[in-house]
Write a structure and sequence with these properties.
Blueprint lengths: L1 E3 L5 H8 L8 H13 L3 E8 L2 E11 L2 E9 L8 H12 L4 E4 L4 H6 L3
Parallel strand pairs: 4-5
Antiparallel strand pairs: 1-2, 2-3, 3-4
Length: 114
């Protein structure tokens, strides 16, 4: 289930984002989190199954577009279709928006067939 990020999920969100190659450095990771917390057009969602948060997807909303900035799944849950489920849930959440990727998420979206 896709749930909107809240401050009480900060440590989990930072842990999942740190798996992204662009978010390895703590200062960069903290800046990214600040963007999601302070900019209305930056939205961060967590993927929760049962009681565990196992994935994260971050987007920037633009006129008629949803651009995926970050997507990450806990390594112990990878290769189970979680990333694809997150993308599908995002499409369902924003049905009238075009789904786009940035240079870091394009390969994954292509693999999803989008």
């Amino acid at each position: 289930m896709l749930i909107r990020y809240r401050k009480n999920y900060e440590k989990i969100a930072m842990g999942l984002l740190s798996f992204m190659p662009t978010e390895k450095e703590l200062k960069k990771l903290q800046q990214t989190m600040k963007h999601y917390e302070t900019n209305d057009d930056w939205q961060l969602f967590l993927w929760k199954e049962e009681e565990d948060v196992i994935g994260i997807i971050g987007v920037v909303l633009r006129a008629g577009q949803v651009e995926i900035q970050h997507i990450s799944v806990n390594p112990s849950h990878r290769h189970q279709g979680i990333g694809k489920k997150m993308v599908k849930a995002l499409k369902d959440l924003y049905p009238n928006h075009e789904l786009k990727a940035n240079e870091f998420t394009a390969a994954f979206l292509e693999k999803c067939g989008l």
